[in-house]
Amino acid sequence: MPCRIAIDGPAGSGKTTVAKILADKLGIYYLDTGAMYRIIGLYLDKKGVENDSDIERELSTIKLEFINGDFYINGKRVGDEIRTPYAGICASKYAKKAIVREFLTRIQQKISKNENIVVEGRDIGTVVIPDAEVKIFLVASAEERAKRRYKELLEKGVKVSYEEVLNEIILRDKQDTEREIAPLRQPDDAILIDSTKYTIEEVINKILEVVLEKCKLKLQKE
Ligand code: C5P
């Protein structure tokens, strides 16, 4: 039986950091589905397409590949250009479209099928892998999430203000929870963790405890 660990939660809840470390400690794959929405969102925004038939036409020309932990769009490796607040807003805008979600969900299911993998996103435990062996829902206050994201962006050399980051988080929360298709919500059988109350290490240890109990996996790194 594979061990598929679904980690969902709002922007900046610490999902990415937690998912990456977890996958590393367990020696298994890590898939960042938000990156996929960012890549497609930026691409479609650049093309300036709005209606479904134009989006469908563009999607049919896209080859999105996941090789050794990196994404490639039509053969070109994707870098930090998808990490800006603007890319987040484009991701969230096009993530509302059923056609975009179907396109990416199909690729995500193909990548995670029968794998030991940590998959991070908004609808992993509800839509992409509803039968995941472990489901986690990670939350934190909007201010705490904005603070973390702001620090992360500054360290990467991306020029933004704290207010810009906070506003972007509030806007994305609204779009992600209120959209009709696959909205962000806690799966019924997920374990809820509020990361405002714990350090990253404590969050990881909590998840590891569940994973090691449910899956036949061994820690590869302490
Ligand atoms: O996780 P990240 O902040 O990079 O995600 C960017 C955006 O992509 C989210 O705000 C959300 O709108 C969308 N997304 C989604 N479903 C996922 C992952 C991300 O709708 N599974």
Shape: globular
- Topology order in helix (H) and strand (E) letters: EHEHHEEEHHEHEHHEH
Q: Main β-sheet, in a few words?
A: 5 strands, parallel
Helical percentage: 40-55%
The N- to C-terminal Cα distance equals 24 Å
**Based on DSSP secondary structure assignment, what is the total number of beta strands?**
8
What would you say the CATH architecture is? 3-Layer(aba) Sandwich
Order of strands, main sheet, comes to 2-6-1-7-8
CATH superfamily: P-loop containing nucleotide triphosphate hydrolases
Distinct helical segment count: 9
What is the average per-residue confidence, as pLDDT, rounded to a whole number? Answer: 95
β-strand amount: 15-25%
Indicate how many domains the architecture comprises.
1
Structure description:
This protein has 222 residues and is α/β, with parallel strands linked by helices. The protein has a single domain (4-214), classed as Rossmann fold (3-Layer(aba) Sandwich), CATH 3.40.50.300. Helix content is 50%, strand content 15%. It has nine helices and eight strands. The chain has helices at residues 15-26, 33-47, 52-59, 85-94, 98-112, 124-128, 142-155, 162-178, 200-214, and strands at 4-8, 29-32, 64-67, 70-73, 76-77, 117-121, 134-139, 191-194. The strands form two sheets. It has a five-stranded parallel sheet, with helices on both faces. Helix 1 packs across helix 9 (200-214). The protein is globular, with a radius of gyration of 17 Å. The protein starts with a strand and ends in an 8-residue tail after the last helix. Bound molecules: cytidine-5'-monophosphate (C5P).
